[in-house]
Amino acid sequence: MLSAVPGPIGVFDSGFGGLTILRDIRRRLPQYDYLFLGDNARAPYGTRSFDVVYRFTLQAVRYLFDCGCQLVILACNTASAKALRTIQQCDLPEIDPARRVLGVIRPTVEILPEFTRNGHIGIVGTPGTVASRSYDIEIGKMHPSMTVTSHACPMWVPLVENREASSPGARYFVERDLGRLLDADPQIDTLILGCTHYPLLIDTIQVAIPSGVRVLSQGSIVADSLADYLRRHPDMASRCTEGASVQYLTTESADRFSSLASLFMDTPVEARQIEL
Fold first, then answer.
1. Please, which residues have CB within 8 angstroms of residue 242's CB and are 6 or more apart in sequence?
2. How confident is the model at residue 18, as a pLDDT?
3. Band of pLDDT at residue 67, cut at 50, 70 and 90
4. What are the pLDDT digits (tens) for 90-119?
5. Where does the pLDDT of residue 47 fall: very low under 50, low under 70, confident under 90, or very high at 90 and above?
6. Domains of the chain in sequence order
7. 17 is known to lie in a ligand binding site
8. Which of 69, 76, 153, 240 is catalytic?
9. 196 labelled as ligand-binding?
């Protein structure tokens, strides 16, 4: 079993998108220390198989545990969809039953009744997240009366990471994909952004949808859910250090990561390169 010495809260993503989750978590819970790990060298995860995503995610979780993290947030919809349940059920009991790994899908699904008026939910995400049907399954379990329609948007992440979020190309693909989603169910009144990159397209998204559709971005939702979790589990809260610090790790070039991460965090970022 690993050491129970308190450590930072770990935040993992396959690339950059999870930084939008970290940004909102830090705003909500600024007192804690955080360690962010982006597996940029092997991104994107969205088109990879379940087995590969699970293997890569477990490697990252183990690395963060070895760095002293008692709690790890999978700030990645693909990792949450394809790896979280197996890690929770099969790996944690063997690694350390006292540690926790949490995802971003369940908190988003839990609050849907607060937003939808007619129960028609639209989801946009990477091909991997949509193919996993994780949102469909989770919504079906929690809110069986809701109607769910999903649409994969493979171009949205490359547009964001190539700094094209405000370009005519971004507007074309966002309008096209949202048009197809709304053609499939014109009654959609709540749209889940099922990828942590998508908040950087929010202005373009808002223009492309009817005014009555509410858009759910996961950062503030996950931040509120984590705050509630730590309130309900003071034993875990006591195992998370409070120094108001943040460190960034990447499996790719530290300089490239730092440059693009600053776009997501709205502040200068300095990262360190590691190997998984």
1. 31, 32, 33
2. 93
3. very high
4. 999 999 999 999 999 999 999 999 999 999
5. confident
6. 9-103+220-273 (3.40.50.1860), 106-217 (3.40.50.1860)
7. no
8. 76
9. yes
Whether 134 has a binding-site annotation, put simply, is: no
List the strands of the sheet with 214-216, edge to edge: 147-152, 120-125, 190-194, 214-216
Which residues neighbour 133 within 8 Å (Cβ) at sequence distance 6 or greater?
150
240 catalytic per annotation: no
Whole-prediction pTM value? 0.91
What is the spatial distance between Cα 133 and Cα 51, in angstroms, rounded to a whole number? 16
- Residue in 69, 153, 195, 240 annotated catalytic: 195
Q: Is 151 annotated as a binding residue?
A: no
Q: Which amino acid is at 15?
A: G
What Å distances lie between residue 103 and 11, 107, 158, CA to CA? Answer: 10, 8, 23
Q: Is a pLDDT exceeding 80 seen at residue 1?
A: no
